[in-house]
Amino acid sequence: MDWKKRQKADPYVKRAQREGYRARSAFKLIELDEKDRFFRPGQRVVDLGAAPGGWCQVALERVGPHGMVTGLDILPMEPIEGVTFIQGDFREDEPLAALEEAMAGQRADLVLSDMAPNMSGISPSDQARSIYLAELAAAFARDWLDSQGVFVVKVFQGQGFDAYLAELRSSYVQVRIRKPAASRAESREVYLVASRPRV
C-alpha cells in the first residue's frame, strides 16, 4: 500500500485530524503516559525533535498552565501558544544556549525524544543513524534531567539496540520497553521510558 493510501486509511491519522493534533504520533505519547504516568501538572518538559508539534500539544495539555514546554528541532515548527520553540541543531552551542535561557537555570522533569533520521532505505545505515540520535538524546537527558526525572526515547530495534538499552539500564533506576498501539505493527520502533537517573 502506498503512503498516501495508508495515511488515508489510518485510524490514528483520522483521529488526530478530528481531535486537533498535528500528528498521529500524539497518540503514542498519550498511550505511553496512560501506562507509565510520567506527566504531572506544573512540570518542565523538553521535547527533542518537536516538529510538527504533536508531542508538544500533548505535553502542554498534561502539564497545565503552571507547567513549561520547550520544543527543539532542526526543522521549523508552526507556533503553539504556550510552547517555547527553538529551531536549531541541539548538537550546536547556539540552540543549547537558547534552551538554557528558556529553562532559566532549572532542570527538566521530563525529556522526550521522538527523533528519527531521514530514512535512506539502507537498513544498516538508517539503524546506525537512529541509534546515534538516541545516544545524543540520552546525553542531553543526562545533562538536563532532574534527579527524579523521566526520559522517554524512541529507538529502533536492530544493531546497537541491546547495547543502548544496557547503557540506559545502567544509568536509570528503572527502564521500561513499550510498543504503543499507535506505533505501526511493521515498524521496528519501540519507546524506552527511563525513570530516575542514577547519580
Tell me what the structure shows.
The protein has helices at residues 3-9, 11-19, 26-36, 54-63, 93-103, 123-144, 161-171; strands spanning 44-48, 68-73, 83-87, 108-113, 145-156, 172-178, 189-197. With 199 residues, it is α/β, with parallel strands linked by helices. It has one domain: Vaccinia Virus protein VP39 (Rossmann fold, 3-Layer(aba) Sandwich), CATH 3.40.50. Helix 4 (54-63) links the parallel strand 1 (44-48) and strand 2. The radius of gyration is 16 Å and the shape is globular. The model has no long low-confidence stretch (mean pLDDT 91).
CATH-level-2 architecture: 3-Layer(aba) Sandwich
Q: What is the string of SSEs from the N terminus onward?
A: HHHEHEEHEHEHEE
Mean pLDDT, all residues: 91
Shape: globular
> Given the helix and strand composition, which structural class is it?
alpha/beta
Rg, Å, rounded: 16 Å
Strand content is 25-35%
Number of strands: 7
Poorly predicted tracts of residues: none
* The number of domains: 1
CATH class group: Alpha Beta
Supply the CATH superfamily name: Vaccinia Virus protein VP39
Terminal Cα span: 48 Å
